[in-house]
Amino acid sequence: MSDDPGNLIRAAKQLIETERLFGADFLPARRNPLPEEASQQGAMSAVGMRNGEEHADEGGAAPRMTPQQKAAALNELDASEVRPCSRCGLRAGCGQTVFGEGNPDAALVFVGEGPGAEEDRQGRPFVGQAGELLTKMIAAMGLRRQDVYICNIVKCRPPGNRTPMPDEVAACIGHLIRQLEIIRPKVIVAFGNPATQNLLNTKVGITRLRGLWQKLPILGEGLGGTPVMPTFHPAFLLRQYTQDHRQKVWDDLQKVMDLLGLKKRR
Fold first, then answer.
1. In the beta sheet, which residues pair with residue 101?
2. Separation CA 31–CA 214 (nearest Å)
3. Phi-psi bin for 225: left (phi > 0), alpha (psi -120 to 50), beta?
4. How far apart are alpha carbons 250 and 227 in whole angstroms?
5. Which terminus of the chain is more solvent-facing, meaning fewer CB atoms within 10 Å of its CB: N or C?
6. Is 50 exceeded by the pLDDT of residue 40?
7. What are the tens digits of pLDDT across the range 75-87?
8. Would you say 168 and 90 are in contact if contact means Cβ atoms under 8 Å apart?
9. Is 189 helix (H, G, I), strand (E, B) or coil?
10. DSSP assignment letter at 58
11. Residues 144, 146, 147, 148: is their CA dihedral positive or negative?
12. Confidence (pLDDT) at 263
């Protein structure tokens, strides 16, 4: 960042606005506990009611794993399939794979596009500037990063942080599907066009879909019908830092909170 006083003033104003919208003003007095299994039925019913139908698990049922079993399965997937993966050219151009992190038994999963430079350096998702904003967004919901699960459509950084190509997504999305099959989240938040369009198998853009509940297609066992909330990517918010965009994302997150039964601070 330049030492120009104008840049410093603008950066300070942006920080103040971030804190105002996604910072302490929205933190609940008590940390929100994520819902138990019974809450998922209410969430599914709410999505089904919006579509004029009752929800059924379109992907079929499978025996539930314990959190410890889920953690072991995710670690095995990372070690045996993701890290050695060379299905596309991205692996040759990145520093390391970025699998995902968080609660293996999370009710809420955030899915982004792909790792950036800082994510590639650390091997963790959403740890750059966009990650700092995501952490504030999660905190505004009364949660912590360790309460949720965070991952991306592709596990390797595209050159120059460009959008992943269709063949790169096709080579990598199986890893994401397997992650979701293991975690079995109650709700998925999809950030931006790549995550939204590939999860929902649609070409409709994020501007039209954001804020509208969607249902996950049958991508894998037990996943069909999972509620998906498309919203703007934190990186987009940093580029287009307007009150309108920030408020739209916060509105979307509050819909997620409503569906999960999370309390909002008055």
1. 150
2. 27
3. left
4. 18
5. C
6. no
7. 999 999 999 999 9
8. yes
9. strand
10. T
11. positive
12. 84
Q: What is the pLDDT of residues 185-242, one digit of tens each?
A: 999 999 999 999 999 999 999 999 999 999 999 999 999 999 999 999 999 999 988 9
Report which residue type is found at 30. R
Torsion angle in degrees (nearest 10) through CA of 58, 41, 70, 140: 120
Q: Distance (Å, rounded) from C-alpha 265 to C-alpha 256? A: 15
CA atoms within 13 A on the CB side of 259: 30
| Domains recognised in the chain with CATH numbers | 5-260 (3.40.470.10)
Report the range of poorest mean pLDDT among 42-51, 109-118, 146-155, 218-227: 42-51
Q: In angstroms, rounded to a whole number, what is the distance separating the alpha carbons of residues 166 and 1?
A: 34
Residue 102 near residue 67 (C-beta atoms within 8 A): no
Name every residue whose Cβ is closer than 8 Å to that of residue 178 and which is 6 or more positions away in sequence: 77, 81, 220
Q: Which helix (H) or strand (E) holds 167?
A: helix 166-183
172 pLDDT more than 80: yes
Contact 134, 150 (CB under 8 A): yes
Residues 44 and 185 sit within 8 Å (Cβ to Cβ): no
Percent of the chain as helix, strand, coil, to the nearest 5: 50, 10, 40
Q: How far apart, in whole angstroms, are the C-alpha atoms of residue 218 and residue 225?
A: 7
Question: pLDDT value at position 201?
Answer: 95
Residue 65: predicted pLDDT? 94
What pLDDT is stored for residue 23 in this prediction?
Answer: 47
Contact status, residue 251 vs residue 212, Cβ threshold 8 Å = no
pTM of the model: 0.81
